[in-house]
Amino acid sequence: MQDIILAISGKPGLYKLVSRGNRTLIVESIDEHHRRFPAGMHDRVTSLGDVSMYTDTEDVPLMQVFQNLYDAEQGKTKVGHKEATNDQLVEIMNVALPTWDQDRVHFSDIKKLIQWFNILVEGGYTEFMPKAAPSPEMTIAEPEAPAAEEAPAE
After folding, report:
1. What are the boundaries of each domain within the chain?
2. Is the pTM of this model over 0.70?
3. Class (C level, CATH) for 1-49
4. Residue 153 confidence class, pLDDT cut points 50, 70, 90
5. If we measure between CA atoms, which residue out of 43, 27, 14 comes closest to residue 114?
6. Helix, strand, coil % over all residues of the chain, rounded to 5
7. What are the angstrom distances between the C-alpha of 14 and each of 26, 108, 118?
8. Residue of 44, 17, 43, 16 whose CA lies nearest to 30
9. CATH number of the structural domain 51-130
10. pLDDT tens per residue across span 77-107
């Protein structure tokens, strides 16, 4: 995901960073309207790249959770964040992040995750994590051509 996606406290939805102004950020909403406006110093702005989810071992970046969910769902989730039951929320989290910490991740967090995921997918975002380049150790080396034999000297 090349764009910087932001959440702004007190404003619904997600926003894409367009430009930086003098003490402001120019953001564009990720919806059908694509409204642009400045987010000032008084707004609490959070980059989704800085957000992570609790697991039993270590925190996992939110973008990885989105990628896991997209790979499993192949698009929007089957249930919306408003009408989802607690059992459905647990089922979605077990798909997106099997080792999630059930004590520290609340149902409201999962609803927000679903809401943001659906907004991003509707906005055309389908690759949340960059594709890993193959490591040099993993590439298959081509066999070397046999060296030409020298003719015997006369």
Report:
1. 1-49, 51-130
2. yes
3. mainly beta
4. low
5. 14
6. 25, 20, 55
7. 13, 17, 11
8. 16
9. 1.10.10.1650
10. 888 888 899 999 999 999 999 999 999 999 9
